[in-house]
Amino acid sequence: MNENSGLYQQPTTSNYEVFMAIETEILAGKGEKTAVSIPLIDCDVHHILPRFSALFPYLDPRFMRRIEIAMNSKAEARNNFQMPRRAYFHPYSTARADTMEANGTNHASIPQRIKEDLLDRYHIEYAILMGNDLTTLSGMPDPDLAAAIARAYNDWTDDVWIKYDPRFKHSIWVAPQDPAQAAAEIDRWGSHPDVVQVAIPMGDKLPGNRHYWPIYEAAARHNLPVGFHVGSESAGNNGSQLAIGAPTYYIELQTGVISIGIQSTISLVCEGVFERFPTLKVVLLEYGWAWLPGLMWRLDREWKSLRAEVPWLVKPPSDYIREHIRVGSQPLEVPDLRHLHQTLEMMSAEKMMVFATDYPHWDFDDPDYVLARLPKQMHHPIAHENARALYGL
Predict the structure, then answer these.
(1) Count of Cβ atoms closer than 10 Å to residue 143 Cβ
(2) CATH class of the domain comprising 15-391
(3) What confidence tier does 36 reach under pLDDT thresholds 50, 70, 90?
(4) Cα–Cα distance measured from residue 283 to residue 95, given in angstroms and rounded to the nearest whole number
(5) Cβ pair 229, 286 in contact under 8 A
(6) Quick one: average pLDDT of 7-12?
(7) Nearest-CA neighbor of 355 among 389, 322, 332, 372?
């Protein structure tokens, strides 16, 4: 193709330089610093395994042996063990450049580095750990192996991270393939003082489906919210969860995950999850939030005509959403500030939104950058009050 014609244009600046400039701008908060010094609770911090074998001391020996053999297999590439993976990848790196060592070590695998990079630097009061390694666990076909990995990961997190710094709080992962085993794992951890959430990697069923109800029942029994985080789309056995088929490029996937948040919210409300479990709270992380006002208006409108189909909904769907759904602030979707503030007001963000950075990922939201753009009256609710109530901190 002629470089000077058609779709292709030779850039004057490399894509990587553009990416780094954007990242630098985000990390610097565009030079803006908030004058407000308030407590922060970060609801989306990704700690990661330094290597999968770090789980071996915590893994049931029969599963450890199976994985070990597959990891060391030289026979053929398809016989090597790996966690289910999405077919999409960032063109440069999903990690912030300043969180990577020259030898490839990610700071998120070292408790001391997250403490320095995030907790101490930004005076984070609590960090809700959402392990980066199990977001695709729902794509694993063997339900027993998936449940065993979740158990080992929870034990490893408690031993290596939770005991390291009291500011780290635990989201226990469960494998949704077998709801009974998932409920048992919740019961195993439910009374732990540092466990504040149940994390479920979404599978090929929308979260309102009755398949998940035993998990919700166990979470409600222990007064734990349930967190869903992006990552399981198109992983392993999971079909594409974006509307109408699989996208082609990472940018399509990254933008289109909002459709999963929309579908999930509709499913949770319409299938009666919040009537059946009236104390349950659900946290949607990285699915966006600017879509909430329009969705609530549309769903209330349809309910007026179609309520005979869902007689268990005894109040407008928007009431259930505002009471039971919480959304992470990251990524902060920033049009001009006037429209941002209007959207936040329309969705009742002072009740529904919790602060999140998404450390250590490339689209990390600097706290100063976020607070400089939020309406002042929402600073305290979003920065810490909503999360404090949600997680009982």
Answers:
(1) 16
(2) alpha beta
(3) very low
(4) 23
(5) yes
(6) 41
(7) 332
